[in-house]
Batch of 3 targets.
Target 1
Amino acid sequence: MVDNKWGKRIIYQIYPRSFKDSNGDGIGDLNGIAEKLDYLKDLGVDALWLSPIYQSPMHDFGYDISNYYDIDPIFGNLSDFDSLIKKAHGKDIKVLMDFVPNHTSFEHPWFRQSRSSEDNPKRDWYIWKPPKKNGVVPNNWLSQFGGSAWELDKKTHEYYLHTFDVSQPDLNWRNPQVVEEILNVMRHWMKKGVDGFRVDVAYYLFKDPFFRDEPRNPLYSEHHMQYDSLLHIYTIALPETLNMLKKLNNVVNEFDDRFMVCEIYTFLHEIVNLYKIVGHQSFAPFNFSFISLPWNATEQKKFIDEFDELVGQDYYPTYVLGNHDQSRIAAKLGEGSARTAALLQLTLRGVPFIYYGEELGMRDVEIPEEKARDPMAVNMKGFDFGRDPQRTPMQWDASRFGGFSDVEPWLPLEKEFKERNVASEEKDNKSFLNLYKSVIKLRKTRKSLEEGKLVPLDFKNPNVLGFVRKEKEEKTLILANFSQEEQIVELPKSSWRTVLSTKLDVENRKEKDQILLRPSEGIILFSE
């Protein structure tokens, strides 16, 4: 049975550039986050995950690190970071850092030394290969940001590997010196009080030592990214990578009450397998089923039931509705269904990850091509692959720049920010924000919601998903209507009382044998 505190915690992702600007440069920073800790505490979150704040030339907005041991000046300094940790811990809020172990910036001193000559001691810290005899790239591997994953270095006439942007050379995880240095980086930040890490692109660490060409993807179409034209059997999820994630988690476990979550986009059986390989309650891989699967009750129920059963009671699932790489859930589903998705995320067994602004129902923002900042959008113009739309500034109030900054922000706000913001929604009893607060409060005060088992239900209705959370004799029933039409549901035998609807217009209503679910409505019922 799970007894680890992380299985009960609610984690909130902050994209620091876009959360709160404290110094008037149009970019969010650490002191801005510190200013909003009371808001986060009132919302009910238990931990923050900060997207990268390390020193970086910002070609990929912090995912290209030039110094793992320092803070980038646009966010503040080490003193600001220490202050944020102290203030957050003072409010019983944990802090996780984004951790980028697959690659560095090409401006990192390690890479500058590595590319300086073939004899440099740091040469083998990265992945270098000579051209083929005909002068072309070493193999057919592709970059996620478009084109070949190989870039020719003119000085040494060899290619370096970059699975992502050309500014992000891949580290060589087969070099023990690299492994030890990265593990020491983790120890360094945990000694400073960091409570754990979100590991970026965790499945990419090791690559095929024989550098074999990857096979073509027979299902590929030109409407998808070029990267998807290959089956990445030699660059993703190698056995060595899975074992290394266990080693990273062992370092996390050198410290008390720490946590590590890994970014992996993969199939159910691989997610479950990773739980077993790492084998500790301080670890969980991300589950993106709400994002990747069709939004219908049948598909989601099938995944949830199987996922919960396979993960078992020794570990806990994770549930994600969005992040800095994915379109916002309210933009994809509309407000009604997004409210129901939030209800499910916060009442299922496991750890929910809330992306900043999700609690307001923030939408994607259309970014003109000439204002695109994301290198993925810039490198692949003409395709809708940019991630700027879901990274726009947090909407705090109805003032000129949404309370985010006193000057024009680095990205524009959504057009409806004057209606959709924290100050406005706090006053509206039926707002998205108050739905989040209400459900989180129930989760924290209801034992069955916080740590109870999940009992699947089958209503023989393809539009309705339901389950019971049970802890000893206490039972909580969750129902969700995925359709745009009313649905009548036969309730399980018990005496039920509706305590919350996603419409926020029902409270303490005693139910009979049946219940009417309105379009896109989710409800929580207590057994009496």
Target 2
Amino acid sequence: MGTFLRARRVRLVAAFSVILVLGSGLAACTEPPPPDAMGLRTVLVDGGFEVHWNSTPQGESNGYLLEYAIGDDEWSLLAEPGTNSYSFTGAVPQTWYRFRVRSGFEPGSEPTHFNGWIQRVYVEPQLPVVRIDTEGHEPVVSKDDYLDATMEIDPNGSSFDAYQGELRIKGRGNSTWKQPKKPYRLKLDDGSKILGMSKDKDWILLANHFDRSQVRTSGAERISKATGLDWTPTYVHVEVLLNGEYLGVYQLTEKVEPEDDRVDIKEMDPEDIAGEKVTGGYLMEIDSRLEENNEPGWRTPRDVPVVVKEPDPMEPEQRSYIRNFVNDFEDLLYSPDYQDPVNGYASVLDVDAFIDHWILQEVTRNGDSFWSSTFFTKDRGEDLLVFGPMWDFDRSMGSPVTPREQPPEGWYARDHGPWVRRLFHDPAFVDRVHQRWDELLPDLQAIPAELEALASALGPSIDNDEARWDYELGPSDTPEFIRTWLETRINWMTQAFDAEAT
């Protein structure tokens, strides 16, 4: 672990850091900073931070001096010329500081070299701290190109184990990548167990930009695990520092991929193009951004956008096989005898898994349900499509992002897409949904209180996130709202199912 992470015995005060700003004011910069000829940067330390800069201006024999200001106050001298670093300690939590290095050594004089100033907010992380430093402190600006980096995880008083290792990092996401607070994909050099999760190389940092409560995906995780779906990713709340910059509260989670401890399907090779080998395993996603993202996939005859996530790359024979299989399922679903329990849709669809997945989407009123991030699989030697696992429910449970997703009353995912609509025309399918709801209801009813407790416990870390990204928590992101919304939703669905059964 780094020096600043070892220093505190009781609790790490691993702090702060925000933004390169050219100009004045306290507005957060949302784009990577431009190169600074003065080399001004920071390194995290216990209780504050160290400032580093280039020692000598071009064309001058003297060095730079360092100045700082609290908020919009006047500049004050910290370090005289002749040094290129300074340890700043005693920072006040959630207080903004500005720093600049300049030449022009008389008090109040105009600088002869001045490339702007950096602005930082000091916070004290309460969660496990994930610190990532890219080689040369290069900013992460691409979803396509990895950067070499190192990562340290400090448990910060939790029961998790510490971690230190090398990895590569790049951006990820669709609409979330366009936001100021960005998600990232991590690939470790060596597979490791991290924060209690199973050993692997591939990990995701979810930013939850659209979920300031920070618990909506955690709620979906609990519901998914209550149903007993084959595999549900674990989501662990952390606070992230990237190249000395405090990025706020994230969820570190397992990547959805074919692995024994993740999506348990056969991993395909390019040579698997005939016989039983070509039958799987395939990991697919319903994703309406199919064309926008130029993804490998197709639209079914009834316009369901299917993206093949694995195998990647996909051979022409593999594409032909899985496309025909999925399209044949859709044709069977819309055939006259689709309700036949032996020869109808149930012969190629894991109905129990689909019902559990639909309940998860419906009870959370997930904005992405059967539109995006809806995964399903086809394994080798199995003639079944299996829905799951769940992924990223930041626009669910009364999310304020889209008003139509907010009300806890009314059906939502029940009418999302031609497959769901058709299944609900089968009385036998509807009966199985009712039965499954009754089985799950006791477990579901316990989850709202659990989420309220989790959201309350995250309060100090959410305050840090608010300070970093300059927002105020809205009424639909409070612990009380999350609990009340989900309780109301569960009660409404129970009453609606009871009414259908009479």
Target 3
Amino acid sequence: MSSLLKNKANFSALTPLSFLYRTAEIFPKRLAWIYEKRKATYQELLIRSKRLAGAIKSLNVNKGDIVAVMLPNVPEMIEAHFGVPMSGAILNSLNTRLEKRSIEYILKHSKSKILIFHEDYIGLIKSLSKRIKLKYIIVKDKKEINYRGILEYDSLLNQVNFEKIKENYFPKDEWESISLNYTSGTTGNPKGVLYHHRGAHLMCFNNQMVWKMGYHPIYLWTLPMFHCNGRCFPWTIVALAGTQICTNKFDGKEIMKLINKNKVTHLCGAPIILQMIIDNKKLKKIEKKINIMTAASPPSPNVLEEIEKSGFFVTHVYGLTESYGPAVICEWKTEWDRIKSSSKRANLKARQGVNYPSLDFLDVFNVKSMKPVKRDGKTIGEVFFKGNIVMKGYLNDKEANKSAFKNGWFHTGDLAVIHNDGYIELKDRSKDIIISGGENISSIEIEKIIIKNFKVRDCAVVGIKDQKWGEVPCAFIERKNKTLTKDEILKFCKKYLAGFKIPKKIIFKDLPRTSTGKIQKFNLRNFIIDYDD
């Protein structure tokens, strides 16, 4: 047996690049993407991706170098997911909504050699180019603009001799990095998270399996592609010879228009996307079921009930940048369909759930004893991961890697309980737990109660300093109905919460969010310092 070794005939490195080679060979004329009045076949996507790889190489970018992209949900972003790694470089997708300081930090920290950017960000890029010397490539959409010292994307691609790039590129080692994604940096500078070809390849199969996707899905981009490489869906949809519908307009009316026009079958988005669809006044029941995958905070039972009545089926997932996006899914069981109470079904669906197939181990541990907590749905511990869809590690950050991978597990920093059926349910981030008079208070528990009020659109709870108790809960509420008062909220909370869990301060305001819809609690904590009611 020991004489049976890997060889070129029986082993090759796993990579999502292989999906495009296969699909373009089998379905060359099938539409790969649609964007407004533009569209492209799989044959065209492959050619342009290879041209991009050739253009990158012509700019003296070597294997393992970083190529940054700052693009919205446009077709060139799909091309970058293939063309950049085809050149042997590592794709660094920048959050397009970051401020200049963070963009500058990421470009310097990653030592990016090239920045491919959209024309909408020219003002920011002109300012950055004075401080950071690298090669800038502009993707033009509609404007006829020319800037000295900035290369033009399509012109570069057209200059490439296709005869020199015909051969398909495969990494020699599947552990090679395919992409670099930066965390949101809520507690300091963002950390650079490296993905490998193997993990990205396996994540695509995970997406297909857990979402029960068939061939030729029509996928609408209501999730930013820069977020965890769009949860690996740019590669997943190509594997299934599907069509990707690109859009940068995120409102309920436009989403429904694109769904109906293109016969969309799948889309992803934070709960705020679900709310946008519901708020669309022309929302009617859809004849064919449409699948929505949502992450971030769990959607409220009210939102779940309302959107599923309209013909959407919601799948709730959970993960981190460090796990290629979602790694845990609330796997729906057919016997739950027989539960008559819609609120009970919604509560089941709001749980985070069980592990993705390629996440070998998922558990909730007591961090002091390093043993799993009781499966009673009450005992809180930290969520630990282990498996092929956990990141390689943080770029140039030994201390962060040491802490994240302590004792052979990936420590998520999220606190949860685990139920007797093995489904986990998040209770808080470890840093978001409120310790009041020695008692631990889950901010998520309070948020779940407040959001049940039909006058509430959304809610976030943080701890604020208190002379007597150390910390007490403070609720920030986005109102759906302007008549909602603080007294109403307090009376509502008293029905469902113990006295020490009731918010001691209530503030009505729009909630600050990340580009992917997550509420920025650190901004709320900063707000409270200067707040005077």
